[in-house]
Each structure stands twice: as C-alpha cells, then as structure tokens.
Amino acid sequence: MDTVRLDAADNVVTATRALEAGVAVEQTQTRALIPAGHKIATTVIGQGSAIRKYAQIIGYAAQDIQAGDHVHTHNVAFRNTDVDYEFCTDHRPVKMVEPSARDTFMGYHRDNGSVGTRNYIAIVTSVNCSATAARMIAGHFTPDRLADYPNIDGVVAFVHGTGCGMADSGDGFEALQRVMWGYARHPNHAAVLMVGLGCEMNQIDWLLDAYGLKQGPTFQVMNIQSVAGLRKTVDLGIAKIEAMLPLANQATRTPCPASELKVALQCGGSDAWSGITANPALGHACDLLVAQGGTGVLAETPEIYGAEHLLTRRAHDIETGKQLIERIKWWEDYTTRNRGSMDNNPSPGNKAGGLTTILEKSLGAAAKGGTTPLMGVYKYAASVTARGFTFMDTPGYDPASVTGQIAGGCNLVCFTTGRGSAFGSKPSPTIKVATNSAMAARMHDDMDINAGTILTEGVSVADKGREIYEMFLRVASGEVSKSEAQGLGDYEFVPWQIGAVM
Asked: Using CA of residue 214, residue 219, residue 224, residue 227, what is the dihedral sign?
C-alpha cells in the first residue's frame, strides 16, 4: 500500500513511503518525488480551491495543482477559519461501564479526597529569584539520603522564569497563581514547601489568602529576605523537608477506581501519521477512560484551530461550546496584536513530516479527544472539575501546555509524537506514543508504545487504544515510564507567561 486515503471526499492521499515520479496512485501517477508522509493530489485542484483531508478543509490551492502533484507548503495557502458553528449536534451518549466491572489501579488516596499516581515532595517557587535556593534544597535529597523513605518518589524543585516584572492582576498574574495553587494541591504531592524572595509581585501570602491554603506539617512557606539570605534559606528548607519525609513516607498505594485518573492528552513533534495512528488510538483510550468515569484533558488551543467546529458539535450544552469559541477568538486577537499568525504552527519539523498548515495539524491533533461529549472548557491551569472529555486553553508549546494541565489536576500525561520527543514531566509521569515504526525503533529508549504498527502490521486503532489505556493503569500503579526512567521532568515546569514584562 503506497498511499492512505482518509475519506472519499478528500482530494489528496498520503504517501506511506517515498515515491519516485511516475508511480501509479489511484487514477493518476506521481509527477515528482513525494517524501514519505506527504500529500499527493488525486485530481486537478484549481487555484483558490479547497484542499480536503479528513473530509475537512486543510488549505487552499495557491496555484493550479495537477493530479499527481506534491501538495505542500509551496502550493498551499492558509486562511483563517470562517465557519458557522454548530452546538451539540454530534452528542454521542457514553456507554458507561457498570460500577461493579470498573477497573482499578494502585494509587494514593489523599485526605482531601483526591487520588495520586506518584508520591513526591515539591518545592514550588513564587519567582525566578528563589529558583537557585529551591534547586539547592532539592539537590540535597539524593537517592542515598532518600533510601530510608521508599514510598517517596523524590524531592522536586518547580522553578520558573517569572513572578516579578508583571502586572498584579490580569491574565498573566492569574494564570501564574493558578499554576502555583494547582501544584501546591496536586494529588501527586505528599508535601509542599513554597519558597519566595519576599519583594516580588507574585506574593505567596496573596496566594494563601486567595485559595485558602493553610500552613501545616506538610505545607510550609518561607521567603529568602525574611530568613536572611540564600544560605540560611537553603539550610532551613532542608530542615523543613527532613521533617516532612517521615510523614510523606506514610503514604502507601491502595486500590483506586480508574475514574480517579485525569489524563493530559498531548502531542509534540507531530508528523503526517499523528492524525492517522497515534492520535486516534489515544482518542480511543480516552473513550475507554471516560466510560470508566475518568477524565481526559485535551489542550493546545492553537493546535485545534480549524478543528474547533468538530468539538463544538460534541459540546454537552451550548454554553460549553461557546466557551471554546471564546478561547479561539481570544487567540485570534492575541496573535494579531503580537503580529503573529495562527498558522505559525506547524513547526519546520512538522512540515518536514508532511504537515502543511495548522488546519491539517489541528484536525489530526483533535483526534486525541476521542468521540465522547465535551463536558467542560477551562482557562489555563484552572482546576478541572468535570468528568469525561474536557478541554483546557493552553499554548501549543508543550512544556507550558503540560504545566497547565498538571496544575489543573492531571495525574498522568500521554504524549504522542511522530518526529520524536524527549519530553517528560513531574509530578505526573508521561507516557510517550510513537506515530510510526521507524521513529519508534530509532528512539526505542524514549517511546513506550509504537502506534506505527497500525500501518505496518495492520493493528486496529481500537486495539492500540486498548494497549494505551492499559498502560495508563500500569503507570498509574507505579510502573516507570521511559521518560521517568531517564530522569526527565525537572526542567519541563514552564508556566505560560502572558502579558508585558515590565
């Protein structure tokens, strides 16, 4: 099979391997070299006419395109989306698994009713000025020093490059406060130490007041200026965490229902196969999780641009659908006033992998959300309270996007990739799914699951989705994912910076 056709209405097909000129493709033949994963026109497409894949518009012909031509950035033009949105017209009821038959995993029941998949002690900074102190404190707790606390997964510093030089209200400030609150209350944390400088705009005391956080044996705060310097802050921080260790170590894994899993649905380093193999398979895994009463959280608003009309049709009510469109309009304004374009994505790597416009990328990316109703739309890093399939407004930049999803309560991350990715995250472990077998073999140490077998071995999307879902349960129960095994996650905490730096 040299090509893949996704829908009868499409006027392009995708090459499964590099094709020389003159290779027969449907009712035509290739007119030039077609790289693997790239598109071939199957009919004449006149200048200005729509190019269709997934039975959806992915761009417009910038010039006359002949049957057999390579269809890519050299002859495809992008236009902003302009559709009449429908709401709740594709609302498919979920067939829930009977409670007596639902799956379980071995997790951590927290006192506030939440459930964790890991058991970390976190050091959360309010400002970049306290980042060094936090890293020094965390660095003290080597594996040797934690050997007497086998139930603790580690002591992790979550540091960032903002927290001051910003407005004390508005989108940027509120997003950072939600991130800090989300990490402070995350179910994968047994204990938390917050470290600030003291004079920053992002005051820890404001966070405590706004969210009702109370200090106690497993939640402590301090400022470098009040403690009287860096060295004393590090020493005091070490002492505080040493006191937390015995308490955090008391947590043990017990059976928990799969309904307590909240999975961040992510993709990065995408290619043409993302929307054909790994993303639909992850979508099926999401459907299986939702049927258990669990939650999938799709994100990356710029990377559903051009596919949002499919999600509004799945909204469980009109208000939810309108909330999604509100975020799309916000992004159109945001990119315009910053002299950007919604077609800034795909990246050069995405394009090399066969993706031509953000519309094409988005249609494949949205497949990660499966087929169940859209139950909620959330601002960046807001607590995700609805169960089922949900959406969070985030950038497409993976570290910033996942940081928001984890702050929203996601206790697992599943990340599909076609070009290859070395992404990992803490405190919620990342499972990585390869879209193609060649990359899966080349980056074997980084990929947990190979969805490329959907093409190379004829494995069904449903079977691969079941494999992904079952890995959710295993990793949630303590199995180490490949990104965890390599120590990834210490530098992937990146709160989204919105607004002016002053």
From this structure: positive
Q: What letter represents residue 303's amino acid? A: E
Q: Tell me the C-alpha distance between 362 and 246, whole Å.
A: 47
Order the strands of the 262-267 sheet from edge to edge.
374-378, 388-392, 295-298, 262-267, 412-417, 430-434, 449-450
- CA 408 – CA 266 distance, rounded (Å): 14
CA 416, 422, 427, 431 torsion: positive or negative? positive
Task: Please give the structure tokens belonging to residue 358.
Answer: 């953000």
d(CA 132, CA 224): 11
Q: pLDDT tens for residues 142-184?
A: 999 999 999 999 999 999 999 999 999 999 999 999 999 999 9
- Residue among 215, 139, 154 nearest 190 (CA): 154
Write out pLDDT tens, residues 339-365. 888 877 788 999 999 999 999 999 999
- Spatial contact of 254 and 109, defined as CB atoms under 8 Å apart: yes
pLDDT per residue as tens digits for the range 466-501? 999 999 999 999 999 999 999 999 999 999 999 888
pLDDT for the residue 205: 93
Residue whose token pair is 């200005």? 48
Which residues have CB under 8 Å from 390's CB, separation 6+? Answer: 295, 296, 297, 298, 374, 375, 376, 377, 378, 384
324-352 as b/e: b if 16+ CB within 10 A: bbebbeebeebbeeeeeebbebbbeebbe
Angle, CA of 223, 402 and 427, to the nearest 5°: 60
Cα separation, 376 vs 218, whole angstroms: 32
At 431-447, the pLDDT tens digits run 999 999 999 999 999 99
Q: Which residue has the tokens 């995708």?
A: 14
DSSP single-letter state for residue 130: G
- The sheet that has 76-77: what strands, in order across it? 50-53, 56-61, 76-77
Instruction: Collapse the DSSP code of 226 into the 3-class scheme (helix H, G, I; strand E, B; otherwise coil) and give the result.
Output: helix
In 66-186 the beta strands, taken as DSSP E runs, fall at 70-71, 76-77, 104-109, 115-116, 120-125, 154-158
Residue with tokens 């003159």: 22
One DSSP character per residue, 417-464 reads ESS------SSSPEEEEESSHHHHHHTTTT-SEETTHHHHS---HHHH
Report d(CA 286, CA 466) in Å as an integer: 10
One-letter amino acid for residue 90 of the chain = D
